[in-house]
Amino acid sequence: MNYRFIALCVAVLVQMSCKQPEKGLWSKERANAWYAGKDWIRGSDFIPSTAINQLEMWQAATFDTATINRELGYAEGIGLNTMRVYLHHVPWVVDSAGFKQRISTYLDIADRHHISTLFVFFDDCWDSTYQAGPQRAPRPGIHNSGWVQDPGLAIHQRPALVDTLERYVKDVMTSFADDKRILLWDLYNEPGNSGHGNKSLPLLEKVFAWGREVNPSQPLSAGIWDWKLKELSKFQETHSDVITYHNYSPPEEHQRDIDTLRPLGRPLICTEYMARTRSSRFDNIMPLLKKENIGAINWGLVAGKTNTKYAWSTPMPDGSEPPTWFHDIFRPDGTPYSEEEVKVIRGLTGK
């Protein structure tokens, strides 16, 4: 008997059985099977109340594990199970090993609270310039007065930055490619915002290509947010394994977006909603999303240095309390903005 031949055949069969899933866009069947294995996804876009932006959250000097732990405890207490969290390439450039260790520490904390994480790589919202080191203080009463884009104007001023961004994305994603604490990679928040338009398309295309090269076990997505940006939106919907989207509109308009996206045949996760003064609230949108089996991730968990309790276009320069909070669920001490809202959330999460 040719034992060497038999051993070779066995090795080939083992290798075939351990083969990684094929690279490329997930099939609809794979995406829907992945989603069917999850509890209903509900949570918030999260940054600790002590951080004004992504840099202050992730830089070593201001990485605030005590606040992260406390505030994720608030989320767990009302039955939230997912947080959407923004990264930034600058802390990785400064100290890649330390940055990844802080990501792992964050994931440890979130996991202890039974919370999974969607990480966001790039972002076209708010300030187009940034720098490492201490971040400026919030401007009183101004929504997101210190939030920064990534990579912002730098990608146009220094085109070679794209090489750094590629190494950053691949390093972080490879390091956590099989981490079950990560739900999904949200590759680019609101591409084309802040007047970038189609100038963001090349980077959007690149980051999806980089993600496919890594081929993580988690799905890839980038949220559709402005249907008028047709070329960007079309790319997002045709290259995302799971369809994510943003909607801050009342229920009727939100339902129209759902009806538009359903024919794509993929799971849906709303990764931004809930702006009280725009009639997007927990009592009228969260039940809709649960009924439709759509992930529900609202903007804002704890009011803090981001000033997102103030509306986008209604600044209050004296820093006084807005009559109605725009975003956020809790004050820093854990007191809810609205006890009635928390009752609604608990009722929907079964907490």
UniProtKB/TrEMBL annotation:
<protein>
    <recommendedName>
        <fullName>Cellulase (Glycosyl hydrolase family 5)</fullName>
    </recommendedName>
</protein>
<dbReference type="InterPro" id="IPR017853">
    <property type="entry name" value="GH"/>
</dbReference>
